[in-house]
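Deliverable D5.2: sample structural annotation.
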Amino acid sequence: MEIKIKTLKFDADQKLVAYVEKKVAKLDKFFKGGSDLADVTLSLLHEPENKQAKIQIHVPGEDLVIERNADTFEQAITDCVDAMKEKLTRTKEKKFDK
C-alpha cells in the first residue's frame, strides 16, 4: 500500500512520519488487493483537541474517509486506524456478500 502523508500548518518530524506509516500500513491486511493508496492528512486546529488526522483510502468503487481529533497526533492516528479497520471490514463484507 502506498501511503501519502500531507501536513497542514506545520512540518512533521521523521518520528511522526514513521509512526503514521507503521500504523496505516497495518490497514492493508484488512482489504487485501483492494486498496493501493492511502492519503493521510495531519493538521492543527484552533480547538482544545487541536490535532486532526484524516485517513482516506481508495477502494474499488468508493473512497473511505475517517477523521479524528485528539490532543496528540499519535492518538488521532490510532483512533483513525481503529475506525478504518472496522470500516474496511464492513466494506469488504458488503462487496463479497453480493
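Annotation notes: The longest strand covers residues 51-59. The domain at 2-96 is CATH 3.30.160.100 (Double Stranded RNA Binding Domain).
The annotation will be released with the project's public dataset once the embargo ends.
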